[in-house]
Amino acid sequence: MKPIIILLVMFSTTTAIAQKYLFYLHGKIIEDQGANAVDNVNGFGTYQYQDILNTFSNAKFTVLSEVRQKNTDAAAYAHKIVSQIDSLLKTGAQPSKITVVGASKGAIIAMLVSSFLKNKDVNFVFMAGCNQSVRQQFPAIKFCGNILSIYETSDDIGHSCLAFKNQDSSSISHYKEIALTTGLKHGFLYKPLPQWINPAVQWANGRY
User: Fold this and answer.
1) How many CB atoms lie within 10 A of CB 144?
2) Helix or strand or coil: residue 24?
3) ∠ CA 171-175-180 to the nearest 5 degrees?
4) Which residue, 60, 72, 75, 202, could crosslink 68 as a Cys pair with Cβ 3.0–4.6 Å?
5) Does the pLDDT of residue 142 top 50, yes or no?
């Protein structure tokens, strides 16, 4: 089964209102190697991209995802996602039924989507994307919406997002942070592990 890519302009108003939408933004290794990416350097193994999409689809979400081009500009791609969300909203989709899940570089893009969209009712899940370097490189990031942060304590790349939240929480409707202890380091996001999938699904269903 190929990754699920949906043209938003094809939705009728009735269809849009009835659906729950989930954008999944993958890590950088998928940009570099494609949908069947494998990390042989750190021992993270296969990035189970399609399995992750299938898991969200089986949870009754309309899943929107694609393999980004190599060296995709994060801010430009974030604006693309904002345009797609705006298209959904114009067809009658409820913002509380729209969720953006980002992993690693995808989390950075998701944080930028949150910042550019400025909709306090849309749901976001940021995984392994927060660190001091990202704060310095992307000063435009300002969380807005319902924010779930998930990170792995053994990961040396993505950490807690509290520093981003604490700089200005006025536009955050709900915030929660989960620290995992899988021992898988950054590789935890390569698989549809229930430790992060289940909280993400609950968040996307409005259980804050």
Assistant:
1) 22
2) strand
3) 145
4) 72
5) yes
